[in-house]
Write a structure and sequence with these properties.
With 343 residues, the chain is of the alpha+beta class. Helix content is 40%, strand content 22%. It has three domains: 94 residues, no CATH class; 85 residues, no CATH class; 116 residues.
Length: 343
């Protein structure tokens, strides 16, 4: 119960994400052996490689304490109820000569499952299991145990715990389906009510409600924003997908453009609460600009590219006084687009 109400830190394995332009791994810093008892970390990949530190090694580290939302982990942040949703952005990392602990680090995969009782309809329970971190065979066994436990109650596994390996990826609310926006909205509604939104992971309700689900007490904190805010998230998701699926950009160009877009997305996420209309205008201009740039070279039109680049800069100028970073990044994206014309 504490693992669920505490937000799941240390009980899920996430893919690295680009934060402030750097690819970062998520980890926890432990003094014991239980992963969920550690301090959440974001470690830049370049720093991890240069430090020569392996997972499970003893080390000294130094960094800045920031909010989970700064790491793009809004969904995780919204589930932290009994602690501040903080994470340490590691800036210095040094391995120590001390030997690794003889005791293995323990992780605690947790899953939600639907218990389909023909007399009562579906109701939901959690199950968890302890296993050794870093061993694929152990994690395989954990998945098998979770599935058998759910089957014992004629249940269906609803969530999974690993974004790096495709365990239970077809579960209705798996991390893979949440990221791809293909999660089961009917199941979501059983928890939060029939809220009509495009992206449940961005919705926040004005009040705090409490439900009893199975034997687990869960608190829900959901904020409902205006349609403009929800629309922004849909547009920015489409922008990322457009870059990834582009046949007109090579791998290097995709990487460069993706880094710029991730930077402006992070700034827009902070801006949209106070300047929703301006953020929406910038997001839509960004979508048009990226769509033009992503086309095959033979289909690009110089006039359209120039128009979309200037449109993005003009939209960004709306927030020059409150978000200068957006203006700067928009200018870099516009330059990227105009360089395609020259190329």
């Amino acid at each position: 119960m504490a693992l669920i109400e505490g937000g799941g830190i240390g009980t899920v394995r996430l893919l690295p994400r680009r934060i402030d332009g750097d690819v970062c791994w998520f980890a926890t810093a432990l003094t014991g052996v239980m992963c969920h008892g550690g301090i959440p970390l974001a470690i830049p990949d370049a720093l991890l490689c240069s430090a020569g530190v392996n997972w499970g090694d003893r080390c000294n580290l130094r960094g800045r304490v920031r909010f989970l939302r700064d790491a793009g982990l809004d969904a995780a942040a919204s589930r932290v109820h009994h602690a501040r949703p903080l994470i340490v952005f590691v800036e210095e990392l040094e391995g120590l000569a001390h030997q690794r602990s003889a005791e293995p680090i323990t992780i605690t995969p947790v899953a939600l499952f639907a218990n389909r009782d023909p007399d009562r309809g579906a109701h939901y329970k959690y199950t968890f299991v302890h296993c050794e971190a870093g061993l694929d065979a152990e994690i395989d066994s954990a998945v098998e145990w979770i599935e058998k436990y759910a089957a014992k109650y004629a249940g269906q596994v609803i969530t999974n715990f690993d974004e790096q390996r495709p365990f239970l990826a077809d579960a209705p609310l798996s991390y893979q389906r949440l990221v791809a926006k293909t999660y089961d909205r009917l199941i979501i509604n059983k928890f939060s009510g029939p809220i009509l939104v495009s992206h449940i992971d961005q919705v926040v309700h004005e009040s705090v409600t409490t439900q009893y689900i199975g034997v687990v007490r869960m608190g829900h904190e959901i904020n409902v924003g205006g349609s403009a805010i929800i629309n922004i998230d849909a547009v920015l998701t489409n922008v990322s997908q457009t870059i990834g699926g582009s046949t007109g950009l090579d791998a290097s160009q995709k990487s460069q453009l993706d880094a710029l877009v991730e930077s402006i997305k992070a700034d827009l996420a902070r801006l949209k609460e106070s300047h929703a209309d301006e953020a929406k205008a910038i997001a839509e201009s960004l979508e048009r600009a990226v769509a033009s740039a992503a086309k095959p070279p033979q289909e690009r039109k110089e006039g359209i590219l120039r128009l979309s680049a200037n449109g993005l800069k003009e939209a960004a100028a709306l927030v020059a006084g409150v978000a200068p970073n957006i203006v700067k990044t928009a200018g870099l994206i516009a330059k990227f687009i105009m360089d395609l014309v020259k190329g």
